[in-house]
């Protein structure tokens, strides 16, 4: 049965050149999905489509350096599994992921030489995953004989834009939890003068949000609007707990709470506040942008740990206790 065309697609010039290797349908689907992920009106789909089309036609791909320090690779996993908008269908034709230790072909000295060349050329976006240890003059994390601290100082300070992908590169994450033995910190803790830093916390970062933020930058040549902690408003502008966001809010409103794992409320999907849910004090759109297009913590029956809140490991532990509204 034919499906109705979304209005946003009808807005796009039908003669717009489509990047090679992707069907018109998939290209417009990508642009529509990104516009929705950015919480922008459908009319913006046209601008996104035109910008990406002209970028692809120019053959100029945005150079990206992805630095991984004290991390679990969860942010890379989340980014690669971003679905709708998917990463592989288009994004890799628009960016050039010149340095990523997990994904790049060169290794050892060849990989480091590529990073040096990128830094020398400038004009790149730097994405950082994992915390940067400052203790013992950076000795707790070294790559190719250099400390993460020294690499971050060199690469972040010369980037056009720095994106902290995941909580660890925002404020140190779990490695910075008390007593923080390595002196772990985020981009700005390690490189206070780093230019144009955007924080995208989450444990891990939401891949759809990261793709959307990159496409916003490709479209407008600037970062999306940020909140006071440098988080993009499109992804971190609303409370999880708000009515219409959390799928369990109707039970909160009706005073129906889970009180023990496996109790009747747990089986019926009631509100998790009594189990320590931090949804009332957490801003994130994870209720909308599920992981692997499947689920999110509260949807899976687990209270929100508040993983997008600055300092959440220390602030919100013990995770299963009530911390107030
Ligand atoms: Fe949802 Fe948590 Fe709020 Fe309950 S307390 S409605 S589970 S966000
Ligand atoms: Fe994190 Fe809470 Fe969302 S734990 S992923 S902010 S539901």
Short structural summary:
This protein is α/β, with parallel strands linked by helices. The protein has helices spanning 7-10, 24-37, 44-58, 74-80, 87-94, 108-121, 148-158, 167-171, 187-190, 207-220, 233-236, 249-253, 264-268, 312-316; strands at residues 62-68, 95-100, 125-129, 132-133, 142-143, 146-147, 161-165, 184-185, 197-200.
SSE layout and pairings?
Layout: H1 7-10, H2 24-37, H3 44-58, E1 62-68, H4 74-80, H5 87-94, E2 95-100, H6 108-121, E3 125-129, E4 132-133, E5 142-143, E6 146-147, H7 148-158, E7 161-165, H8 167-171, E8 184-185, H9 187-190, E9 197-200, H10 207-220, H11 233-236, H12 249-253, H13 264-268, H14 312-316
Parallel strand pairs: 1-2, 1-3, 3-7, 7-9
Antiparallel strand pairs: 4-8, 5-6
The structure holds iron/sulfur cluster and FE3-S4 cluster.
Structure characterization notes:
The structure is a single chain. The protein is of the alpha/beta class and 325 residues long. The protein contains 14 helices and 9 strands. The radius of gyration is 21 Å and the shape is flat. The protein starts with 6 loop residues before the first helix and ends in a 9-residue tail after the last helix. It binds iron/sulfur cluster (SF4) and FE3-S4 cluster.
Based on the model shown, name its key terms.
binds FE3-S4 cluster, 325 residues, 14 helices, alpha/beta, binds iron/sulfur cluster, two-stranded antiparallel ribbon
| Class per helix and strand makeup | alpha/beta
If helices are DSSP runs of H or I spanning 4 or more residues, what is the number of helices? 14
Shape, principal axes of CA atoms = flat
> Which percent band covers the strand fraction?
5-15%
Reported for the largest beta sheet, the result is: 5 strands, parallel
The low-confidence parts are: none
Give the % helix. 25-40%
The number of strands is 9
**Average pLDDT over all residues:** 92
């Amino acid at each position: 049965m034919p499906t109705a065309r979304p209005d946003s697609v009808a807005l796009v010039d039908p003669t717009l050149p489509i990047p090679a290797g992707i069907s018109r349908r998939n290209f417009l689907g990508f642009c529509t999905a990104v516009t929705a992920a950015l919480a922008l009106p459908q009319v913006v789909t046209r601008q996104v489509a035109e910008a990406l089309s002209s970028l692809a036609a120019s053959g100029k791909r945005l150079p990206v350096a992805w630095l991984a320090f004290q991390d679990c690779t969860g942010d890379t996993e989340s980014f690669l599994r971003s679905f709708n908008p998917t990463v592989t269908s288009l994004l890799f034709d628009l960016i050039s992921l010149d340095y990523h230790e997990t994904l790049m072909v060169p290794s050892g000295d060849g990989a480091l030489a590529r990073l040096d060349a990128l830094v020398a050329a400038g004009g790149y976006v730097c994405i950082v995953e994992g915390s940067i240890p400052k203790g013992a003059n950076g000795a707790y994390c070294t790559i190719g004989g250099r400390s993460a601290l020294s690499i971050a100082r060199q690469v972040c300070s010369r980037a056009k834009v720095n994106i902290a992908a995941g909580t660890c590169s925002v404020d140190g994450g779990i490695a910075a939890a008390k007593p923080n033995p390595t002196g772990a910190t985020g981009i700005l803790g390690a490189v206070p003068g780093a230019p144009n830093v955007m924080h995208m916390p989450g444990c891990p970062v939401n891949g759809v949000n990261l793709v959307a933020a990159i496409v916003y930058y490709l479209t407008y040549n600037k970062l999306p609007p940020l909140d006071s902690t440098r988080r993009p408003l499109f992804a971190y502008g609303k409370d999880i707990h708000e009515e219409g966001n959390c799928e369990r809010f109707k039970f909160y409103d009706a005073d129906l709470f889970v009180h023990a794992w496996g109790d009747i409320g747990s089986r019926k999907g009631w509100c998790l506040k009594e189990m320590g849910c931090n949804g009332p004090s957490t801003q994130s759109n994870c209720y909308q942008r599920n992981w692997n297009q499947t689920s999110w913590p509260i949807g899976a029956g687990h209270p929100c740990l508040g993983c997008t809140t600055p300092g959440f490991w220390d602030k919100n532990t013990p995770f299963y206790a009530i911390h107030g509204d």
